[in-house]
Amino acid sequence: METDATILKSAVIENVLIKKRERTAEAPVVQDEEEKERRERRFVLLGRLLLTLLAVAGWEIFTRIGWLDSYYWSSPFTIARTAWSEAAEHQLVSDMLYTSCSTIFGFIAGTAVGALLGLSFWWSKRYALISEPFLIVLNAMPKLALAPIIVILLGIGFFSKVALAFALTVVVTALSAHAGVKSVDPDMEKLMYSLGAKRRQVFAKVVVPWSMPWIISSLRINIALALAGAIVGEFIASSRGVGRMIMYAGTILDIDLVWVGVVVLSVLSIVMYWGVVALERWLSRGFVKR
Questions:
Q1: 156, part of any domain
Q2: What's the pLDDT tens digit per position in 232-262?
């Protein structure tokens, strides 16, 4: 009897193990989500590179066979040759640095001042209600129309370009920060006050962290606006900058140099956009950890 029981027990255990192995073999393979996401990013990057190469190659071919007028459209090879000639004289690099610095300084100043202005509305509802219509009017106003006045007021130098970049970004950031302030949960504020927190502590621990996503979301818009402001300032009057180079090339009908300026501005905008995206990720991680 003991032998039969042992045999039966062994058979049951073996049957259970066989079924377990079958279930394991039939179970779907769970892919690593991070590896899948990396493959997807590589595929998207490759697709973008291929599309860019096709566009550039098509542009070059169409101008060579005459489908595009090379005088108006130039060609990638001619643009690259002209850019190399300008870079060899150090003028192109100097113009790029000038435009980049004015854009970045205006972007930083406009974002910082706008964020402080928007957050300050939390301290007084009357102050916020009085100021909000003026912000809306300033946001709707075509601020680039004021560019000649700003250039005349501050001169054709560097600071007029920074001021234009600042003017285009400060209102957008202030409105975003104000929207974040208005979305703060009042129950969270009441809880902090009930725990004995002071007003400045509620502002630092609740209002600012709560409004940060709203402020961060305005960064991508601000960098484009700042670049537009700096370029418009250079169009009006400037001794340096990519905008000045484009205007000069247009006056002497040097279309190749105009296209160099357009391509350089495109590259600058992409680099600045990627920089702002990296800044957003860094700020978002810091906000989440906090």
A1: yes
A2: 888 888 888 898 899 888 888 888 899 998 9
